[in-house]
């Protein structure tokens, strides 16, 4: 029980990290396109 609870928390942290990284990539990508296009 304790092991599954901690692993679930770690999995949730990983999902949050990947979501944050994805948002960061999208924001950086759109910002780069806005800079490149006149």
Report on the architecture of this protein.
The protein is an all-alpha fold and 38 residues long. It has one domain (1-38). Helix content is 92%, strand content 0%. The protein contains one helix and no strands. The protein has one helix at 2-36.
Task: Give the SSE map.
Blueprint: H1 2-36
Q: Distance between the terminal alpha carbons, to the nearest Å?
A: 57 Å
Overall shape: it is rod-shaped
Helical fraction: over 70%
The ordered string of helix (H) and strand (E) elements is: H
Strand content: under 5%
Task: Tell me the number of helical segments per DSSP (H or I, 4 or more residues long).
Answer: 1
Please state the oligomeric state of the protein chains shown.
single chain
Content-based structural category: mainly alpha
Give the mean pLDDT. 88
How large is the radius of gyration? 17 Å
Poorly predicted sequence stretches spanning 5 or more consecutive residues? none
Q: Please tally the β strands and state the result.
A: 0
Q: How many structural units, i.e. domains? A: 1
Biggest sheet details: none
What keyword list fits this structure?
38 residues; mainly alpha; 1 helix; rod-shaped
In short:
This protein is mostly helical and 38 residues long.
